[in-house]
Amino acid sequence: MSAPLPTSHTAVTVPEVMAALKLSRFKVYDLIRTRQLPSFTVGRARRVPADALHTFMQNQLKEAA
């Protein structure tokens, strides 16, 4: 994986979210389960909209301030 969050995609995979946030698979799925991080499935593949990931990060920064 060359970049944690590819800018050419509009939806990212769970491993890409893990790399971007430096979190475990369990924690990413926990964020998805608790609806803190929106996602959708296509078949068996789970995807997170890139905009939702950016919004999540912005919200975390606001809460930390």
TrEMBL record:
InterPro entries: HTH_17 (IPR041657), SinI_DNA-bd (IPR010093)
Residues in Helix-turn-helix domain copies: 13-60
One Pfam family per UniProt: HTH_17
Superkingdom: Bacteria
Protein name as annotated: Helix-turn-helix domain-containing protein
